[in-house]
Give the backbone structure.
Amino acid sequence: MLTLGIETSCDDTGVAILRGEREVLCEYLSSQIKDHSRFGGVIPEFAARKHLENLLPLVDAVLNECHISGQELDLIAVTRGPGLMGSLIVGVMTARALSQSWGVPIVGVNHLEGHLFAPLVDAEDIEPPFLSLIVSGGHTEIIRADAFGRYELLGQTRDDAAGEAYDKVARILGLKYPGGPEIDRLAKTGNPQAFDFPVPLRNTDKVEFSFSGLKTALIWQVRKFEASGGDIPVNDLCASFQRAVVDALLAKMKLAVKMTGIRRVTASGGVSANSALREALRRSEGFRVWLPSLGRCTDNAVMIAMAGANSWLRGNRRSEEVLPDPSLHEFTQQ
Ligand code: KG4
Ligand code: ZN
């Protein structure tokens, strides 16, 4: 089975061809980071226009590289939400047009289920049940996967997503967008104990997160330095902020393991590229962790093709039209 995956939920245009459920034949990813970084964040209309320019040439490129025609595909898997409306429309409408003209069936994929598949691309030995920490610019949540297609949301953030907090803190510190990789880099030479930032909701008995108070605590520190005219210790602030974020994520993952008895853990989403988080998860006792390769933490089309192919093979062949849904969230009933 050959699946064409299409991902356009935010600012990355991704296209990939998958054979069977795991074999990646070819993939292309066009990042718009440079286009958006001068604005300090993603500009939705601009992102949609860029997807429109990039998507069809990338589809042509993967087909050419695999020496196959569109008609030879067995399935098109496209992200239908959650994400930016304009970006999703470009992906979904392009996929529908290609599906019509090639006579190939189409399946809509929940972007979050896509992230859940990312660690599985390179790992043969992970099967449900497992717990998945999805931690990105838009989401921070822990999902229990009892089977592919059978998921339960154990808990999520009450306010900012972890990646969003990284991006906001980076902006306060005058660092470039996206903030996560910059803070990760600077934190390596900072002191994680320099500032006693709170680890939000760490000791509650619920799987829940909150990052906006942490961001405010950091703003107050920066203001104090500004008021006193002193140099801002950016690296120490980055390291202390990161220590608090990683502590919160790890504490709740341990709680989820304790609550469920499931000791297989995955992480995915942009923040799962964070070096401190990866190390903390790998070192932690009480569970085994599977992480995506660095390139597959952030948005990509391979994870969408995998989730789509898996869902199709499970018999999920809904005949209704695939429509973009920017606020699609629950993916318990796939
Ligand atoms: O999964 P993703 O590409 O897009 C969403 O679905 O949101 O995640 C992007 C987010 C951004 O907030 C970015 O700052 C963060 O992931 N990120 C990181 C790192 N690399 C990317 N955060 C912390 N450390 C990193 N190394
Ligand atoms: Zn994502």
Observations:
- The chain has a mean pLDDT of 93.
- The radius of gyration is 20 Å.
- The first helix runs from residue 33 to 37.
- Residues 10, 136-138, 163, 166-167, 178-181, 184, 269-271, 273-274, 298-299 surround KG4 (ligand 1) (CB under 6 Å).
